[in-house]
Each structure stands twice: as C-alpha cells, then as structure tokens.
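Before relying on records like the one below, remember that each one covers exactly one chain. Contacts with other chains, cofactors or solvent are not represented anywhere in the record.
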Amino acid sequence: MGNVFSFSISEILSRCLDCMVAKIAYIRHLQHNLSDLQAEYQKLIEARNDVTRRVMIAEEQHEMKRLDQVQGWLSRVEAVGTEVEEIINDSSQEIERLCLGDYCSRNCISSYRFGKKVAEKLKYMATLRSEGDFKDVARRVLKDSVNEIPIDPKIVGMQTIFDKVWRCLGEEQVGIIGLHGTGGVGKTTLLTQINNNFCNERNDFDVVIWVVVSKDHKVEKIQEVIGEKIGLSSESWKTKSLLYKAQDLFKILSKKKFVLLLDDIWERVDLKDVGIPHPDPNNGSKIVFTTRSVEVCGHMEAHKHFRVEFLENKEAWNLFQSKVGEDTLNNHPDILELVNKICLRLKPTYMGNLTL
C-alpha cells in the first residue's frame, strides 16, 4: 500500500513539474516566438497578396467568381492580421517584465498567458499559410442554365413531333438530332419549345445553349455566343485566335453535360473547329439543330432526324380561326369565301369547304 501511495505522489509531482516547465517555456521563448511571429505574419501577407492577385486577374480578365473557400481563407487572414497587430503592440510591455535571463517574469501569470497566446497564434498562422496554397482560386460563372425564349402561347400541330424529339433527348445513343423542313414550316418554333421545356422539366444538364447560325454562319460568331453563355466573354478572350478560343471552349464544355441548340443551319458546322465536344454516351451531351435540307442532317452526322411538316387541315383551320377570330369571320363571310377559293386553287383536296 505504501509503495502504491509513494508512486502516486511521485507521479503527481512529476506531472506538476512538467506543467511548470511547459509554462516557463512560454515565458523563456517569448522573445524568440515574437520574432518568429512577425516573420510568419510577413510570409502570410505575401501569400495573401499572391492569392488576391490571382483572384483579381480571374475576376477581371476572365469574368470568373472566386471560390468560397478562397474568400473564407482571405477573411481569416484579415482577422488574424488584426490579432497579430494587437499582440505586437502589447509585446513591449510584456518583454519589460522579463527577468533572470528571460527565464522568469515580474508577473509570471501575465507573461505566461501572453507567451502562450503568441505560441498558439504562431502555430495557427503556419497552418493558415499552408491552407492558402490553392490550385484554383476561381470558377467559371455560368448564367442561368437555360434562358427562356418568348413564344406565341397559341401553338398548334407540333405536339406529336415535339414528344418524339423530347424522347430522343433521353436516349443514351442519340447525341445529335436534326429537324428539317421547308422555310416557314415552324422549325424554329419547335426548337424554341424544346429550349423552354428545359425550364419546366427536371433534367441533369448543366447548361442549354441557343445559337442562331443562319446562312452566312461564321465560326467566330458561334464561338462568341457559346462563350458568353459559359463565362468566356471578356474583350481579351474575344481577341484570341479561332484555334485558341476553340481550345478554351472545348476544355470547359468537356467538363459539362450540355445541350446545344443550333437554329437555321444551311451547311455543315464543324464541331471541332468551333470547340464543341462530340456528343456521345459518355458525356451525355446533346445537339439539336434546324435546317431546310435533309442532306445537312447527314453532313452533321445526326443520329436521328425528323421532318417538320405543314399543319394538317384541321389544325391549320383552327390556327387560322384563332388568329382571325370568330367574330371577324362571322361579320365578314367574304373572308371565308376567299380562303376557300385560295385553298382550292392550292390543293383541291386541301380542306374541302370551310365552315365555322
């Protein structure tokens, strides 16, 4: 029993001695730690300046947004800077209290607490500086994933083909879809319906991009419209060569699941030249385009293509009524007679006799 008691006493005394030595160490190393604190703070400021410079370049030249973790780190650096300045301002008073070769203090409790604060802050700043070694400081800012396009609320005769195209967008093996038909048949209206439906239906696409190509299409114009949508619209980027812009677009789009809607294609658009990754089952991206020529569907290597037809008789008449209005037709029967004559001349079996 005595041996156990003596061992306990000696253990307690040893722990007390260790505790006292640790506390004395905070006092003994105070001046050295203060010097290291100022040096570490200077390194931290330099790291902060480097990160801030990278953020400014990314935000101003590339229209990117700083990462939340970067902003959080900068805020912590600013906060610790205020604390370090307070420590440095109070340090002269604490140093004057040291005595016996800095092994003791005229106010041991005060010097111990201050020395511990300096040591802990020194360790924290070293950790904070290592956390500031960011690979990326900002990210591309995407606008709304899809922009809704104004469209006539009274659209008839396209539900069937719309449903077919929309189903194709969910098929893994279908990456490129062509919509072809004569001018004025409603291809752009159909493509607009597809675009707007992404606003209403849940989907896993990162971005839906609308580009009007037209007859005299230019690669540069297509690149700039796509770049605007995915955050590449600075003047410095626009002055790059077509090749470099294509590389930038390809790099960003390769990391996204996108839908590209190309309206009014007259000839093949070379996806590689623009910087568009080819849709496949791995990336899950889709391209839908409209064209007047079925041959263009082949040139674009469309996996599926659909012919957009004129409205059926009943649908065309319903559309005509909705546009003109029943009151107008009732008050002006000559309009109905004129329409009948026109339809019969165009196609004898087009509608037969139209009646309200």
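The chain is about 60% helix and 10% strand.
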